[in-house]
Each structure stands twice: as C-alpha cells, then as structure tokens.
Amino acid sequence: MSLAHRWVVLGVCTLAFMQTHIHRVGFAPLIPIFIAELGITYTAAGTIMTAYFWTYTAVQVPIGVMTDRLGARRVMLAFMAVLLLGIGVFALSGSYAQGLVGRCLVGLGAAAVWLPGLRLMNEWFPPRERGRVTGIFSSGGGIGGTAALLGIPLLTDRFGWRWGYALTLLPALVALVAIFLVIRPGPLGATAGHPRRAPDGSVVGPAGRSGALGALVTVLRMPALWTFNLAVLLSYGAYLSLVTWLPAFLVRSEGLSRSTAGLVTALMTSGTIISWPAAGLISDRLGRRKAVWLFSQGMSVPVCLAFALVVPGSGVGGAITVAVLTGLVLGGMVTPFVMVTELFPSELVGTASGVVNTFTFVGALVVPVLLGMVLDASGSFPAAFLACAAVQALGFLAACFTRETGLAGRAEVRKAP
Questions:
Q1: For the chain, which terminal residue's Cβ has fewer other Cβ atoms within 10 angstroms, N or C?
Q2: Number of other CB atoms surrounding residue 193 within 10 Å
Q3: How far are the Cα atoms of 251, 376, 384 from residue 381, in angstroms, in the given order?
Q4: Per-residue pLDDT for 205 more than 50?
C-alpha cells in the first residue's frame, strides 16, 4: 500500500475522533433539560456527564495493550460498534439510572479511537511530521465537539432531545464503515519477528519480559512518564469542567437560550480546530514540544479567570470574545500526547499512551464533579471557574517538570557534556 494512503488513514482517524467528542460533550447542552425533567442537582448532572469517562478511563490501558498486540483496526471496529449501541441506549433512557448506563456504554465505545489513532500516526508518518498530523487528528475532536454543541440544541428544539441525540447514530455508522474499508497497519511500525526494545534497551515481548504485563511494567517504570500523568490529569480535567458547565452558566446566569449557549461554547471548541494542528506544526518546525505546551497551559489560567471575572454581566458579546480567544490559545494541549509517543519505541506507544490517557480521564472524572459540588455549595458559577483556574495553575506547574522530546531538544541533550 502506497505512502499516499497515510493521508486517507489520517482522514478516517479524524472522522472517528469526531464521534468521540460529539458524545464527550454532547450531554452538556442537555444539562438544563435533565435538571428540569428529573429534578436533579448540579452534582448529579455532572455525574451523568462524567459517567462517559468511567468506562472510557477504565479501559484505556487494556486498549493500549490490545492495540500494540492486535492492531489498531480490530480494536477500533469492535469498540465503535459498542458506541452505536450506547447511543441507542442513552436516547431511550427515561431515568437517572438509565442515563448513567447509557453514558457508560457510550464512553466504553468511544474509548478506542485516540490510542489506536496515535499508533497509526506512528506507523504511517515519520517523526518530523508527527506533531502536525497528531494536531490534525486531534482537530477531529474540535470538529465533533463543535458539531455537538451547535447541532444537538438545534435538533433538540426541533425533534426533542431523544430523537435529536439518536440522529448522532448516522455519523458514527459512517465512521465504522470507513474504518473497516480503510484502516491497515502502516509501513513504519514494528517489524514482525524482531525483538522489541524498551527505552532502557531491554528486550520486551517473546524474547524478553513476556506479553502485555511485561510491556506495562516497562512503561510504568519510566520516571519521566509520571510528570506527564499528573499534568494531563489536572489540565484536561479543568478544560472538560469548563466545557461541561459553561452552557449551564450561560443559560442560568446570563439568560441565553440553549441554542445560543451552545453556540458560544462551540466557538471555544471550534478554535481548537485551528489551534491544535497549528500547535503541532509549530512544534515540528521548532523541534520542541514543551515550549508550545507550556504556552497553552499557562494561558489556560487567565482564560478561566476571564470566565469568572469578565464574562458575568458582559452579555453575549463578552462571552463570545472570551470563548473564541480560549479556543485559539489552547492548541498546545495536544503536544503532551505527541511527547509521550516520542518517549517510547513504537511497540510500546499504545501501552504508554493508554497509561497517560487513563490519567487524563481520571481528571475528567473527578474535576467536573468537584466543581459541581462547588456550584451546589456556593450557587456561584464564577466561584467554580475560579477553582478551575487554580487547577489549571497546578497543571502548569506539573508541566514545567516534564521532559522535552522534540528533535532539537534531544539533540541538545546529546551534545551536553
């Protein structure tokens, strides 16, 4: 298969990643409806939102290991089918418990796109292109999230929330068919029959530490991985909290309609469609990943402060301005995932990325619920956004201690006496 096929593979991975973000944030515009219909608290609504991440998080390491051993295509096909099932179950749910079950199934089905996709980026693209292609791949998340925040409120207004949500089955089905037809192993992956080597040079797999457990132990023993784990837990948890509670804030406190609130929040996610690929490209050109990441992580603090202190009472114009700027400055969020793939040989990319992604979504599990508790206790969205800023500041501090993996940074390390 020709190298030109890599761009088709990238396109299908991006399409599949769109589906994960449609359902990752697709419940946020429905929160006011669920609170009104079920009489639940903000904490309970945040729990339904994060139920997606319970199953998503629980299977990240197994999915990473399965991807390294079974290949990306098989894993993506199996879990995309589960996503289709989960969409149907959630659309039919009529109670709080049923909503939780539906979100759990959706999260399980969506769990196997990002890690297999990262593996495919490493199999099909050389190191000098991986920043930009990972950025393009991740932009599918921005497209999907934007589509959900814009489309689901409109579909809900026209058809009711059940049918509006059920229509998201169609693009997920298209993605499943495209994966079946297009995805194949790339020419830059590990060569069958050759020993697999860990970062310390030891052999992993049949010739060394055997099987999935050996690969996982090798990954977990690398100290540099743990600063990434902490940093992404804090930063992504805070970002998902912002996306989760912003629509409800704009409806409840600022008096916007559900559609307008979805539009404002979508402007934030739509900015990442540009900023994520741009950040990846810049990191490729600089040969440095960490500087790009630290810029975006540093900017996440004033962004949260702006939602807490500037947007309240500023009207829709102020909310739009801050949302647009947020999406444009947070592009560096994609770079730590590129950095992790560069810490390990290709045979361990899925496993290592699975570990980091687990911590990413532990943050997504915990932080939105904690901020929901802040909301219930204080009755103040600005208080929750101030807490979000504090979490992002801790994420920035953790990111400062991560290892540079870009080509220029590694070259400087090799030259050092």
A1: C
A2: 7
A3: 11, 10, 5
A4: no
Residues shown for the chain: 417
Bridge partners for 209 per DSSP: 204
Q: What token pair was written down for 81?
A: 């089918």
* Ordered structural domains, the chain, with CATH: 5-182+210-410 (1.20.1250.20)
Q: Is residue 261 classed exposed, middle or buried when 0-12, 13-18 and 19+ CB atoms within 10 A define those classes?
A: buried
CB 90 within 8 Å of CB 103: yes
CB 120 within 8 A of CB 72: yes
* pLDDT band with cut points at 50, 70 and 90 for residue 208: very low
Lowest pLDDT segment from 68-77, 180-189, 318-327: 180-189
pLDDT at 260 over 80: yes
Look at the block and give the residue holding tokens 């991807």.
67
280: CB partners within 8 A, 6+ apart: 130, 131, 132, 133, 134, 135, 136, 138, 331, 334, 335, 338
